[in-house]
Design a protein that fits this description.
The chain is mainly α and 113 residues long. Helix content is 70%, strand content 0%.
């Protein structure tokens, strides 16, 4: 990942993405640059429009709308609902435990029966 980040730093700085540039950034970050990986990255990025690639990837990382602080009182009013949901979870877990015990007993009876 650090190799790609180095290339993006060069791109965002409006500098040409070169082996020397990537190597310099990696070494500044304390990473020993592997010349083979640097050359492979340069080769892979040749002919790639980085702006277009980033624009296509952007919808996957688009920011999510967040409720305004005015919604906080409504959230407080809805607070008892999670307690009811938790009670339902406890009941299902107890039922699941009983079912698991019954299945375990069935397995034991097959061993001894």
């Amino acid at each position: 990942m650090e190799y790609i980040y180095a290339a993006l730093l060069l791109h965002n700085s409006d500098k040409e993405i070169t082996e020397d540039g990537i190597t310099a950034i990696l070494e500044a970050a304390g990473v020993k640059a592997d010349k083979g990986r640097v050359k492979a990255l340069i080769s892979a990025l040749s002919g790639v429009d980085i702006e277009e690639a980033m624009a296509q990837a952007q919808p996957a990382y688009a920011p999510v709308a967040v409720a305004a602080p005015a919604a906080a009182p409504a959230a407080q009013a809805a607070a008892p609902a999670p307690e009811a949901a938790e009670a339902g979870k406890e009941e299902t877990t107890e039922e699941e435990k009983e079912e698991a015990e019954e299945k375990g007993m069935e397995g034991l009876s097959a061993l001894f029966g």
